[in-house]
Amino acid sequence: MFNLKENKKIYVVTNRRLIDKNSNLCEVIEKCVFKGADAVILREKDLDYEMLKHLGEKIKIITDKYNIPLIINGNIKVALDINAYGFHTGFQNFKNMKGNENILKKIAIGVSVHREEEAVEAEKLGANYLIAGHIFETDCKLGLKGRGIEFLEKICKSVTIPVIAIGGIKEDNIKKVLNTKAYGVAIMSSAMKI
């Protein structure tokens, strides 16, 4: 998949539960980064602060070695404490962070959006980039129809910050996404099974 990205970016989103039993998350991340991943989003929602921090520190060694950003999903304290490049969160949580502008200035902020209005508001509130999805049907959102390429194009036209597409992106449909104005794609399943 990484050889298909052309001049766009591929963000790897982690999910250690999808990894083959004979491997571990750090090995998978190293493979992805070696093959051309442009950023890693550590998204392990079930881990407490200490466990996420420990895992983040191990992964940061890899991302620093390859000089790519490590972004922590859902835990701003871990992101700041390990000096990660960025913090990623959902739209509602980002809105609730209003009043924490001093913290938000210390780190790049990414926000997941599912509607054009959310994208516009997230940019106004100071998001540095957006993840828009889900574009295609995906096992992560069973039973929910993908929002499609038209949705992605609308989001890209409505903001000036980078937009990363997520959701069901595979080798057979990545070109459709990369032909839009999207900055790149985020992949989970295909990356974790590398």
UniProtKB/TrEMBL annotation:
Checking InterPro entries in the record gives:
Aldolase_TIM, ThiamineP_synth_sf, ThiamineP_synth_TenI
- Keyword set for this entry? Thiamine biosynthesis
The domain of life for this entry's organism is: Bacteria
Q: Which GO terms describe its biological process?
A: thiamine biosynthetic process
Question: Where does the Thiamine phosphate synthase/TenI domain start and stop, copy by copy?
Answer: 10-190
Q: Which residues cross the membrane?
A: none
Q: Which SUPFAM superfamilies match?
A: Thiamin phosphate synthase
Recorded hits in Pfam families, A to Z, give: TMP-TENI
Question: Which GO cellular component terms, listed alphabetically, does the Swiss-Prot or TrEMBL entry include?
Answer: cytoplasm
Q: Name one GO molecular function term.
A: thiamine-phosphate diphosphorylase activity
Write out the pathway annotation from the protein's UniProt entry. Cofactor biosynthesis; thiamine diphosphate biosynthesis
Q: What is the name of this protein?
A: Thiamine phosphate synthase
Q: What is the lineage of its organism?
A: Bacteria, Bacillati, Bacillota, Clostridia, Eubacteriales
